[in-house]
Amino acid sequence: MNASTPNRVAAVAAERLTKVYGSGNTEVVAMNDVSLQVQRGEVVALLGPSGAGKSTLLTALGLVNPPTRGRIAIGGQPVLDGDQPLTDLRAFRRQHLGFVFQKANLIPFLTAVENVQVALEINEVTPRQARRRALELLDYLGVAERAGNLPEALSGGQQQRVAVARALANDPSLILADEPTAALDSHRGRQVMELFCRVAHERGAAVIVVTHDHRALDVFDRTFEMEDGRLRPGHSA
Amino acid sequence: MNLALRDIRHNRARFALTTLGIGLLLMIVMGMGGIYRGLIAEATLLVDRIGADLWLVQASTRGPFAEISRVAGNLEDRARAVPGVASARRFVSHTVQREHRGRPLRIVVQGLSWPEDRGDWLPLIAGRPLRQAHYEMVADRSLGLALGEQVRLGKDVYRVVGLTQGMVGSGGDGLGFFSVADAQAIQFDEPPEATRLERAARFDRVVANDLGRVQPLLADRSAGTSANIPAFGQPLVSAVMVTVKPGANPAAVADTFRRWPDVTVYSTAAQKDLLLSGMVDKARRQLGLFRVLLVIISTIIMALIIYTLTLDKLHDLAMLKLMGARNRVLAGLILQQSLLIGALGYALAWWLGQYAFPRFPRLVVIQTPDLIALAGIVLGISVLASLLGIWKAMRVEPNKVLAT
Known about the structure:
Strand order of the largest sheet of chain A: 1-3-2-5-6-7
Radius of gyration of chain A: 17 Å
Shape of chain B: elongated
Shape of chain A: globular
CATH superfamily of chain A: P-loop containing nucleotide triphosphate hydrolases
Strand content of chain A: 25-35%
Number of domains of chain B: 2
Oligomer: heterodimer
Strand content of chain B: 15-25%
Helix content of chain B: 40-55%
Number of strands of chain B: 10
Order of helices and strands of chain B: HHEHEEEEEEEHHHHEHEHHHH
Number of helices of chain A: 6
Order of helices and strands of chain A: EEEEHEEEHEHHHEHEEE
Number of strands of chain A: 12
Largest interface: A-B, 33 and 24 residues
Distance between the termini of chain B: 27 Å
């Protein structure tokens, strides 16, 4: 299934992605001939039942679980051809990608501001600049007053906001979110989804969100549904 | 931002306990080295302090420290007659253990060749050297005796007139300095009944042969004190110490003594070699082996702790990898923690040692070169201990984050 939006340089362009686990009798096709283009500033939802291949697609786009076949280009730059990297994937992740998960996955021994700061420092930003930028991001996301707190002292919603701030730290062209509202109540879940929209529209990042939550689909620019490893367009918001 | 310090800040208690454990282990390693140095110092202390150039001991023996040596007391006079000899002193040394104030008191009894040697060379911290030929002693502080205290040894009571510090024998027992005559009296003390029995036996032996029968006066004399029998020599001494005249060649003087068939001569350096190669060598090897084992144990404990700390952080390390952190960032985090544990453990070992080592029953000598060597070893084991953790961190996959 091809769900592309041509004419502009896509934030991410995946072409005929296939992921096969095992071989012979144990072969499982987790993702089958999936193509997808998402523009900067666009927020896209990936829906589908468990085991449909949503996370497989997300990890392939996140360059942590290469597809068996297919090509991925991010910001117009080809980065994967099948399972062959065309660039230093770790460095590319550092500079161009942001991740948000169901759990915030904050580093427990770092404060909120340090969790954001570390993402900048591993991208060679000086500590002072990183600190300033991290505080700006926390302020942007409304959790600046908790900057000095360890994750254990933050609520689930606050932790998720810090995780979003961390994902935004290096001004990525693509943010990948895997069920980011699953651990939140509907109100906070919607707040996070709206946050993604705001980030995408104000900062020009493309956001792909894997979600089961159908109550906040109205915030997405486009939705896709995955079933049995295949991708098809969902209803438009 | 230093991730290693941030992690430690979050795990203060575990880190502190780990450092304490490593510190105590390193203190034992440090102490073992110090005990070895102390053994050497104690073994050679007397030889160094006594200031003799040559030692005359019983022929074919390695006495008086490494084994028993017995020479006649008048060897002192023969030695004085040798050209180039400035002075010769009798040397008596033996260990006694007596009950004093309800506790065992072990003294290495050291005879000073009164009146030439009154112990003026002793490092006194209180009191004075000997001033009379009998019933005075200079005691080392480690014996626990106070100035003016009286100690019964054999039939006589000796008053402590001076105190030294750090004067102990190769076995770690404190030295007590007496005149040679007193030292021999302590050594050869026997109960009155034994003396009476010996005199009676002596009388029986004399009257049982012709000499006693034709000279009754001789038989009477034999039943008296041994001092009144000219045929009996002076009590034996352990060795005679010789000091060579300034300008005289000690080797030439030693050559003269070597021609005497009843003695063996050692220079001070040779005497120290005998001590170190004999008595101290096995202790050195034993302590060395213990040190190696403790270093290995420290390395294993550090490695296991660092590995466990790494396992606890695997999810966070995977997250850092997912965010694009370089391997050196992750390796640096683990290595820095290992080095910090090693460095703080080392500092703690040194600090604790300052308080603990002086309370050890044996002398502990911590030397700067040993401290530097141990610092190098700690650096090495810290790096080694981190390798297992680093290996584990390098293997963690970033998509481990997605699995939880």
